[in-house]
Structures are given as C-alpha cells and as structure tokens.
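Z., the sequence and structure:
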Amino acid sequence: MRRIGELRPLTAGRLLELWREGRRTEDPLERVLVCNGRILSECCFSQGERVYEDETEVLADLTGREMERLLRCLAEGGGPEDRRPQAGTGTVNPEFDVERFAALRGE
C-alpha cells in the first residue's frame, strides 16, 4: 500500500457525481469497487499530492479491506492513522509514523 498522509473529504455533490458515473456498470460488485476506487483516488494525498491518478491505481494497490478502512476513516472524519488494523484483522503499515503524523497535525 502506498503511503497516504492525508484523507481529504469530497463534497456531497462530487460523491453523487462519482456514484452516478459508477451506475453505468451492470455488475454490482464491480460497480462498488470502481466507485470506491474513484472516491479514494480523489481523497488520498501525501505531501500535498494525490497518491493515486485514478481508480485503476487504487484497485491495483489496495485490498478490499484496506479500501474499506480508508473509506470508513474518511466518512468518520479520521486521518490515515486510523487505517491501522484492529487486532487480528491484518498487518500494520510499518512505514506509518504515528508521532510524526500527530506532530504534522499539531497535536
């Protein structure tokens, strides 16, 4: 998984646009994955730059569980530190530095 330093929420209008674009796909699972990939491609940033160019890069880089965690953090207003898995749900990103992130946020 690429390093994500910031999750920037989209406006409700932009989310609606992405959802409408995704409705063109017939298969429900594909529609959900592509729509979520589009959302994350526009929300994930590192050092002020987008991490992913488009949904194809998101889908190639993240697992379904990683996408779900990031989307949950985004919906709840959390930051990327909230990506860390809960006990028994996966591996922790060894490159993520909680203290550095907190310092950048001013905490």
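The chain is about 50% helix and 5% strand. Strands lie at 6-7, 44-46, 49-50.

Let me know what you think.
H.
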